[in-house]
Amino acid sequence: xxxxxxxxxxxxxxxxxxxxxxxxxxxxxxRNRVLIITVCAVLITAILGSVCFFSGIGxxxxxxxxxxxxxxxxxxxxxxxxxAPSAASFAAKPSxxxxxxxxxxxxxxxxxxxxxxxxxxxxxxNVLDKYHVKATFFVVGINDKNEASDLKEIVxxxxxxxxxxxxxxxxxxxxxxxxxxxxxDEMHSLIKNATGIDTKIYRFPGGSVNAYNKKTRKAIxxxxxxxxxxxxxxxxxxxxxxxxxxxxxxxxxxxxxxHMHDNSVVLFxxxxxxxxxxxxxxxxxxxxxxxGYTFAVLNPSVDNHPFIFYHDA
Length: 313
Ligand SMILES: [Zn+2]
Description:
It contains nine helices and eight strands. It has helices at 27-55, 96-102, 121-130, 147-156, 170-173, 177-195, 217-226, 247-259, 275-290, and strands at 108-116, 136-140, 160-165, 201-202, 230-231, 236-237, 263-269, 294-296.
């Protein structure tokens, strides 16, 4: 028969100072002592638990999914006239600092290029390939002789593609919801015919709140949502929409505004006159990659709330 386990142990469990000749202790007293010790232990545990609960000690850190800790950028009415808001308009609100203290999101940049494709699209794709970065292209229909092949090339190299506008004519497209969707559908069809992609992402020329769509934006946005489209404005950019942009200024403003957020949708342009923008993209990307940012493409499942100007009242 196997001996009890404790007999194998090399040491004696008996208290060394217990005289072996002492009389056996009273079982009732032992039971009472055990009971008292148990009650005390329970009381101490309960008191400590209450103190920790009310002081926050021991409370698990709130788990925040990547992308949920980003700063929100809302433009003021004076900023809505510009396609590229100033750096100040991207400033994070003070109340967000507390939230940032408890969440450590992955820092994601959604690099976006408007107004292509153009003669600068393939050169830009080559730069993006070099840095292994995927971007999102919001495309137009009237600028490029090689429209279909450039659209295909954007998709072939793994980038996302979305509708921007066929004509990019503000007065025309924002004149009425009917005019808007006539232009929208034309661009959507062009993308689908060239690439086979039924894109569900969209960017308004001038942003969702601009000086041309005050009367029509609400109806257009409701209709877009009903059709299953998700639109994205931006919360960072280089201000490269101006006529004569300076490379150093674009790079500086793009980095400054991107650094203001954990997650950014960065606005750049890829029309044929934006060679200055193209020239700063390598340094923009390499700087942020060294700082730990990653790059991703937009899709309908990305929460657009932090990145849009228009919100229902
Ligand atoms: Zn545009």
